[in-house]
Structures are given as structure tokens and as C-alpha cells.
Write a structure and sequence with these properties.
Keywords: Hydrolase. With 91 residues, the protein is α+β, with helices and mostly antiparallel strands. The chain has two helices and five strands; from the N terminus they run βαββαββ. It has a five-stranded mixed beta sheet, covered by helices on one side.
């Protein structure tokens, strides 16, 4: 099975609202590896690796997030060679 990798930055009210943990749950359901991490500027970084269709589903989820989040912007791009731990984790 061919895998791809993405790196996304999610901006808005995404810290302190269960965003990283819910992203981990979604990614694990989709069979992805990687992590979600808070950044100092208030955004969340997501690195994910797996089948392209599962990555697309995760990006769709990142645009919504959990109930208390407010996603203003998701910037993502294909990535290469980034660490993508298995199972998907929270940093």
C-alpha cells in the first residue's frame, strides 16, 4: 500500500479545546501515523502519514475539529521524511 505524508497548521481556537486528542482519535480510526502538537503561536501542527484517501479525510476533520474548537484556517502541504510515530500521538 502506497503512503503519503502531510504537514498541516491549524489556526483559530484550537488549543485547550481537546483538538489534539480528538485529532489523535480521528487519525487512529483512519489508520494513520503521526502526531498533533501545540505551537507557541496558538496554532496546532499535525503531521500524518498513510493512504491518501485517509489523509484527505483527516484534512476534512481538521477543518471542523471538536465541538468547542473554532477553526479559522488550515494550511497543509505534502511532506517528505518527517517523523510520523505509530501510533498517532499527541505532543
Amino acid at each position: 500500500m502506497e503512503t503519503s505524508q502531510i504537514r498541516a497548521i491549524v489556526r483559530g481556537r484550537v488549543q485547550g479545546v481537546y483538538f489534539r486528542a480528538s485529532t489523535r482519535e480521528e487519525a487512529q480510526k483512519l489508520g494513520l501515523r503521526g502526531y498533533a502538537k501545540n505551537l507557541a503561536d496558538g496554532s496546532v501542527e499535525v503531521v500524518a502519514e498513510g493512504p491518501e484517501d485517509a489523509l484527505k479525510q483527516l484534512v476534512d476533520y481538521l477543518h471542523r475539529g471538536p465541538a468547542h474548537a473554532r477553526v479559522d484556517q488550515v494550511q497543509w502541504a505534502e511532506a517528505f521524511g518527517l517523523e510520523a510515530p505509530d501510533p498517532f500521538g499527541v505532543r
